[in-house]
UniProtKB/TrEMBL annotation:
<dbReference type="Pfam" id="PF13472">
    <property type="entry name" value="Lipase_GDSL_2"/>
</dbReference>
<feature type="domain" description="SGNH hydrolase-type esterase">
    <location>
        <begin position="64"/>
        <end position="210"/>
    </location>
</feature>
<dbReference type="InterPro" id="IPR051532">
    <property type="entry name" value="Ester_Hydrolysis_Enzymes"/>
</dbReference>
<dbReference type="InterPro" id="IPR036514">
    <property type="entry name" value="SGNH_hydro_sf"/>
</dbReference>
<dbReference type="InterPro" id="IPR013830">
    <property type="entry name" value="SGNH_hydro"/>
</dbReference>
<protein>
    <submittedName>
        <fullName>Lysophospholipase L1-like esterase</fullName>
    </submittedName>
</protein>
<feature type="region of interest" description="Disordered">
    <location>
        <begin position="1"/>
        <end position="24"/>
    </location>
</feature>
Amino acid sequence: MNELNKVTPEATNNPSKEVETGSEQLHHYQLERLASFGEERVYNNPIIFAGDSIIEFFPLKKFLGRDYPLVNRGIAGTDSIWLLNHLEEQVLKFSPIKLVIAIGVNDLGRGYPIADIINRLAELVGQIKIFLPQTTLYVQSVLPVNESPAYADKVKVRRNTAIQELNTRLALLSGIEFIDGYDLLLDETGQLAEPYTTDGLHLTQEGYARLAPAFKAVLEE
């Protein structure tokens, strides 16, 4: 298999200091976690969950059951650019029977245009269909954030209007089954409900419990 074409982040259209940026410490952690995947025991015909911190911190077996061959391939702080660049070692080499991808919230946090995010996700889907034609592919909706000022330092430029627009376009991607968990986590004002979040962006255990039925339906198909 040829190495996937490398892509680099495009210049953001939003120069605000609230745009999320990475750090050397985070990048080092990401590379270490990626390297660890090659050392883990992997089931035959695994069900892989790949994406950002929402996936990495998801206690899959706790909430989805220990009888499934679940493999967590989430890496905190990653976006669609990272996943495209590392698709081979993060996903493809393990030949999952089912693959759930949850990515995009960090793209929004870095100010990337929605059209560019969708183009990358379409390329990602295309690569998976070429190299894993027997794999059933699911894409999870980007989850809501809480835009309260109390969470501004973590949420930064992410806005639910943009998340909803991105989800609408994600659901239309060809070759996937869409998992829509967005509404499950909302409060009466349309924000990520406080019992479900630690910081306006990441989920509490209660949040994962609330989200779990949407994924259980996928496992039972």
